[in-house]
Specification:
This protein is an all-alpha fold. The two termini are 47 Å apart. The protein is built from twelve helices and two strands. It has a domain of 99 residues.
């Protein structure tokens, strides 16, 4: 039985299962025979695609779709899966991700993943989470909205709190109605979450820039330095930053929340290697 493409988030996984289903019906079917019937010049073309060694261009997408006898709606979804996987820029990836999310038959793009995407996409979601358990929080979304900078609306606070509740990041106690933090974490290993994380980091860096004008020096700490270092020193800096980051996370745990702050650590190259020197 041909697998339901709308239950997949990776097109290679679908091709692997679809080919296995074809082989179950025809035990003599091989990658070579498939390539010949689809008129591919490479006898192991499909195998290389499934293994991630080759990509599909626009023409090949339609040829493969025809070979697996996909219906028009399935072809459209298959195109979006391929586009999402092979996108060359964050904007292009976002475009195809929105197409996948917009497909009502896409059961694999579950509500949880949509919610995770929304959590990472909005910079203020973690801020709302922390303020929701502030000891002075009076239960009013307006109380939170009035304290967040840059300002967000009461409606955004309300929708974010519902999002946090659905993800299990905050818990509302039935007896008191009060909110408390949960131990749950949002998984960030899916493609959708990685896409939203890019947007989150871009927002965090933008907020750091805006803080220079918004807050006096005694209320912020902005540092930057340009260094010329060896490759080994660069690697050592990454390790030391990660260790420092872990210290920050540990020091912030189990403390009474009095204010919410943003900590950004960035280390990135300002030069690109000349590939010919190492080839």
């Amino acid at each position: 039985m041909k697998p339901n493409i709308f239950t997949y988030v990776e097109y290679r996984a679908f091709l692997k299962d679809a080919f296995a289903a074809m082989q179950a019906k025809d035990q003599n079917l091989s990658y070579r025979a498939f390539a010949k019937s689809a008129r591919f010049t490479s006898p192991n073309f499909l195998q290389k695609v499934i293994q991630g060694q080759r990509k599909l261009n626009t023409t090949q997408v339609h040829v493969v779709a025809n070979a697996f006898q996909l219906r028009p709606s399935e072809v459209e979804f298959f195109q979006a899966l391929v586009g999402f996987d092979q996108a060359r820029s964050p904007d292009e990836k976002k475009f195809f991700h929105q197409k996948l999310l917009g497909n009502k038959r896409a059961t694999a793009i579950k509500a949880l993943e949509k919610n995770q995407y929304e959590y990472f996409r909005h910079w203020y979601a973690p801020v709302v989470r922390e303020l929701s358990v502030h000891p002075e929080f009076d239960g009013s979304p307006k109380w939170i909205a009035d304290r967040i900078y840059p300002r967000i609306t009461v409606a955004e606070v309300e929708s974010t709190q519902q999002l946090l509740l659905s993800l299990g990041l905050i818990v509302r106690h039935a007896e008191t109605g009060c909110l408390s933090l949960a131990d749950s974490v949002v998984a960030s290993d899916s493609e959708a979450s990685h896409l939203a994380l890019r947007e989150y980091h871009q927002s965090a860096i933008r907020l750091a820039g805006e803080s220079i004008k918004a807050f006096p020096p005694e209320e912020r700490d902005i540092r930057a330095v340009t260094l010329g270092v060896s490759r080994q020193t660069y690697a050592d800096l990454k390790i030391r930053l990660e260790a420092f980051w872990n210290e920050i996370m540990e020091s912030a745990s189990d403390q009474k929340i009095e204010q919410v702050c943003q900590v950004n650590l960035q280390l990135f190259p300002l030069t690109r290697e000349n590939k010919t020197e190492h080839e």
